[in-house]
Amino acid sequence: GRLLHIDSGKSFGNPDHDELSILSPLKQCCRLRNSTWTTLQILHKNGPLSRLLDESMKQDPVYPILTTKHLQAVDRRHNKIMETVRYCIKQHGETTVLFNTWR
Predict the structure, then answer these.
(1) Which listed residue, of 43, 54, 55, 86, carries a Cα 20 to 30 Å from 61's Cα?
(2) Which pLDDT score, from 0 to 100, does residue 53 have?
(3) Would the pTM count as exceeding 0.70?
(4) What is the DSSP string of 15-52?
């Protein structure tokens, strides 16, 4: 599959600061598309995500785009997302957290 790079302009700012408030909607609602969770798990299994991201950008003429610290931050943040979803599943159950279509 393809890896799509979407950046809101914040994720590659300060690699030493993780803005955890962006996880608030996930923490509060504990709802996630099953396909998104599956993709996060695949990226985690085939990762680290930083390696996949770095490899996918190697053909870019301005490579290297991200510093080592930024790539490490990607892995750290990906792990925090994984931990949050796992916590939600533990607290509420997989059938409540994961869904295929909006109800």
Answers:
(1) 43
(2) 87
(3) yes
(4) TT---GGGGHHHHHH--EEHHHHHHHHHHHHH--HHHH
